[in-house]
Specification:
Blueprint (H helix, E strand, L loop, with lengths): L2 H6 L29 H14 L4 E3 L9 E4 L14 E20 L9 E14 L5 E7 H14 L4 H4 L2 H18 L9
Antiparallel strand pairs: 1-2, 2-3, 3-4, 4-5
């Protein structure tokens, strides 16, 4: 666990869905005058992502309005894939292509909400690593989807804004029903 993770309070301090920081565009990460050491920020984001059982996390979800996000396989494994972890500083999606496909997405900032979101299958993105070195890469499939979800966070867009009304209302209803089913029941005594 990093000092940053301790300072922010670990997983309990993850920003929830109504926090205004999720609605605003994050500021560029400044390598010349960083708000936190880039290596520590990367390590902290990856730690919190993995501890939360997630496959992506954006800096604004931990209360830092800076353009940094990370992805990783989490506790998921698929035959033929290897663990992939990457932290992206100042990402910029340059181009989207491919069919738009619906998939169910979840989010650490929206506990219990699993909603269908339509996204393109392929992106082209530039970003910097922890040292500030630039990269350009094409991402496809689930990796593309995870990146798009986290990138949206940095742009002040949450998954509830990306989902169509029908899918969002259905997901909210399922979340309410699940919460109700998991709530402790009071036993009434007979008089």
């Amino acid at each position: 666990m990093t000092k940053l993770v301790e300072d922010i309070g670990g997983l309990t301090s993850l920003v929830k869905e109504n926090d205004p920081i999720l609605k605003k565009v994050a500021e560029k990460f400044d390598f010349e005058n960083p708000i936190v050491d880039p290596e520590e920020l990367s390590e902290s984001l990856q730690f919190l992502r993995a501890a939360g059982g997630a496959i992506g996390l954006a800096a604004n979800q931990i209360g830092l309005s800076t353009r940094v996000m990370c992805i990783g396989m989490g506790n998921f494994s698929t035959e033929g894939t290897e663990e992939y972890q990457q932290t992206f500083f100042n990402p910029d999606i340059l181009h989207y292509e491919g069919d738009e496909v619906y998939m169910i997405e979840g989010c650490l900032s929206f506990p219990g909400l699993a909603v269908e979101v339509k996204r393109p299958t392929t992106i082209f993105m530039k970003w910097e690593d922890e040292k500030g070195d630039p990269f350009n890469e094409k991402f496809e499939g689930i990796t593309s989807r995870i990146i798009q979800h986290e990138y949206d966070h940095l742009m002040g867009i949450t998954m509830d804004k990306k989902a169509n009304r029908f899918h969002l209302e259905r997901a909210k209803k399922k979340r309410r029903l699940l919460a109700k089913a998991q709530a402790p029941r009071r036993i009434q005594s007979a008089k």
